[in-house]
Specification:
This protein is an alpha/beta fold. It has three domains: about 1-290, Rossmann fold, CATH 3.40.50; about 325-475, Rossmann fold (3-Layer(aba) Sandwich); about 500-625, 3-Layer(aba) Sandwich (Rossmann fold), CATH 3.40.50.920. About 40% of the residues lie in helices and about 15% in strands. A seven-stranded mixed β-sheet has the order 7-6-8-9-11-10-15, sandwiched between helices. It has a five-stranded parallel β-sheet with strand order 1-2-3-5-4, with helices on both faces. The protein has a five-stranded mixed β-sheet with strand order 12-14-13-16-17, sandwiched between helices. Mean pLDDT is about 90; it is low at about 210-220 and about 235-240.
């Protein structure tokens, strides 16, 4: 049946009882495709029935559906004309792993970071009202994990007061990437567990909202129903409903895999004006036993056997480990020696390997939910009381805490250590996740030390140095994936802050690198040496403070060509900082100095090696620039 569904219009021609067989076929298609074309698996498996019900009831694309984060939208992509290209998901030149407005008219809003859907849908609903379109529906599909984000709460506060025609579908599965945490998770569990309230609510709705054959729906009946259900909620749940307290009508929780019930509820809610929220309970990873049992691992499992669900691991025995694991193991080592150290993550415990510290030192490790702003200021509060917080955030997510880094950390000179995982190009997740803006964004902030390690030993040395109480606020940025050393566990050494080093001698040209890009610079120097060119390579270690002594040495060495290399945006980045210094102190070298980095454009998704080539920062491109 699936091959005959190329649009929601064709979906809506089916009978309701045909939707579950279609859902089963769609789920199998996703499992079989992602087994050999890796992507976000468990989230999309959990929303198959919900996706079909939404497109069945609502007149998409005229009605707008906004998928929060977007890794739950694979079924949506498949039934909106992209089934034949689905095996290109997250590949270079293929479909994005997230909704994109330039990919399909059914992708109402581009997403990739969490907690944005309600704000976007509210903006759309307000625009429709201003444009005189009173029939268009606006739906935000948001997970329980994303609802912990500050922007989602801000939007909820605005939605209730706006009276906008918007439906929020809360996809509640107890998991974002790691297990959902915090008071909101406990509250949703309480709502879900109250079977007495749910039975009473369904009975009141059925009797007073016109569901009985021949019955008429009256405003007074609905008003009475709302008062009665609010009373029931207060009595049975021990307090008023959070959403209704904000002026949002709440319905649910209901089974998110029961298509007839979903269609029935969505059809009713489509007729109700104003803001409302439907709470649906789903199983992340549904349909694949291994994913249901371990939704954290199967959030994005890589290659796996479609029949058994067993992951197919790439053998890396004896090779370099991931930078995130170096961080995770090193912070435990440091924390065991320094009782002031605590670890903080905004819902990325497994992704950044802080889960290792959670197991070893649970009382000193904090997952604050998807709340980057709170994570940074929470860290600042800890630092103000004498602790040494290591706050680990993915580089692209740290953009959302920019004000807190300036106002709450740097301005107060607090010793917060911000470790930015996934710095640089991250590959298949694409432009919403590339960590290429942090250097340019942060180097203008006073009182920040910004460092980037060449390899695993340097990461450990930087973490060791950063924990020193008198060193102030640090940013340590490092890439996704494996390092370069087989033996990562060195004896840690305290670094001199702002001191770079020459890691390869040469006389004809110099490559000045920051962070992991120094390894590509070394490879480029090897290529040039085979051509008879002598190339020096410098590892600056620090973006801020820059090692001006070393830059003076480079400027005066008589190199025919100088190249700077970074895996961040060129505009205002590491190379710009060096050009600024050369312009002020050594203008004679500007004519033969080249800045290599990410161009002034958003980089697509694809293999990191391919993207580095496209951006001109792989070894071949560096060699060509120097040549």
């Amino acid at each position: 049946m699936l091959e005959k569904i190329n649009s929601p219009q064709e979906l809506r021609s089916l009978d309701v009882d045909q939707l579950q067989p279609l859902a089963d076929e769609l789920r199998t298609f996703i499992i079989n495709t992602l087994a050999t074309h890796p992507g976000h698996l468990a989230s999309s498996l959990g929303t198959v029935e919900l996706t079909l019900a939404l497109h069945y009831v609502f007149n998409t694309p005229d009605d707008r559906i906004v998928w929060d984060v977007g890794h739950q939208s694979y079924a949506h992509k498949i039934i909106t004309g992209r089934r034949d290209r689905f095996d290109t998901i997250r590949t270079y030149g293929g479909l994005s792993g997230f909704p994109r407005r330039d990919e399909s008219s059914y992708d109402a809003f581009g997403t990739g970071h969490s907690s944005t859907s309600i704000s976007a849908a509210l903006g759309m609903a307000t625009a429709s009202k201003l444009q005189g379109n009173t029939s268009r529906q606006h739906i935000a599909v948001i997970g329980d994990g994303s609802l912990t984000g500050g922007e989602a709460f801000e939007a909820l506060n605005n939605v209730g007061d706006s009276k906008a025609n918007i439906l929020m579908v809360l996809n509640d599965n107890g998991i974002s990437i790691d297990k959902a945490v915090g008071g909101l998770d406990s509250y949703l569990t309480k709502l879900t567990a109250s079977s007495r309230y749910n039975r009473l609510k369904d009975e009141v709705w059925s009797r007073l909202s016109g569901d009985r054959p021949g019955a008429k729906t009256h405003h007074r009946s609905r008003s009475l129903m709302q008062k009665l259900t609010l009373t029931a909620k207060t009595a049975l749940l021990g307090g008023s409903n959070l959403f209704e307290s904000l002026g949002i009508r709440y319905f649910g929780p209901i089974d998110g895999h029961d298509i007839p019930h979903l269609v029935e509820m969505l059809s009713k809610l489509r007729q109700l004006p104003g803001p409302k929220l439907l709470h649906v309970i789903t199983v992340k990873g549904k349909g694949l036993t291994t994913a249901e049992q371990n939704p954290v691992v199967y959030h994005a499992p890589g290659l796996y056997n479609a029949q058994t669900g067993r992951q197919i691991k790439n053998s890396n025995a004896g090779g370099p480990i991931k930078y995130q694991d170096v961080f995770g193991r090193t912070i435990i080592e440091l924390a065991n020696a320094n009782p002031k150290i605590v670890g903080i993550t905004p819902a990325m415990a497994t992704g950044c390997s802080l889960n290792l510290m959670m197991e070893a030192l649970p009382e000193r490790t904090f997952d604050v939910g998807i709340a980057e702003q709170h994570a940074v200021t929470f860290a600042a509060g800890l630092a103000a009381q004498g602790m040494v917080p290591f706050c680990n955030i993915y580089s692209s997510f740290a953009q959302r805490a920019y004000d807190q880094i300036i106002h709450d950390v740097a301005l107060q000179r607090l010793p917060v250590v911000m470790c930015l995982d996934r710095a640089g190009l991250v590959g298949d997740d694409g432009p919403t996740h590339h960590g290429v803006f942090d250097i340019a964004a942060l180097r203008s902030i006073p009182n920040l030390i910004i460092a980037a390690p060449l390899n695993e030993h340097e990461l450990r040395n930087m973490m060791y140095t950063a924990q020193m109480a008198d060193s102030g606020a640090w940013v340590i940025r490092y890439p996704r994936g494996c390092g370069v050393l087989a033996d990562w566990h060195n004896t840690m050494e305290q670094l001199v802050i702002g001191r770079g080093r020459c890691i390869r001698q040469g006389s004809d040209a110099a490559i000045v690198a920051i962070g992991h890009s120094g390894n590509d610079a070394l490879a480029a120097a090897d290529k040039l040496e085979q051509e008879g060119r002598s190339v020096a390579v410098y590892d600056m270690r620090f973006v801020k403070p820059l090692d001006y002594r070393l830059l003076d040495e480079i400027a005066k060495a008589g190199f025919q060509r100088i190249g700077t290399v970074e895996d961040g945006i060129k505009a205002g980045g590491f190379g710009s900082a060096i050009i600024e210094y050369f312009a002020a102190k050594h203008p004679e070298v500007l004519a033969h100095t080249t800045v290599l980095g990410i161009p002034d454009s958003f980089v697509t998704h694809g293999p990191v090696a391919t993207l580095k080539r496209d951006c001109g920062i792989d070894a071949d491109s560096i060699a060509a620039a120097i040549r």
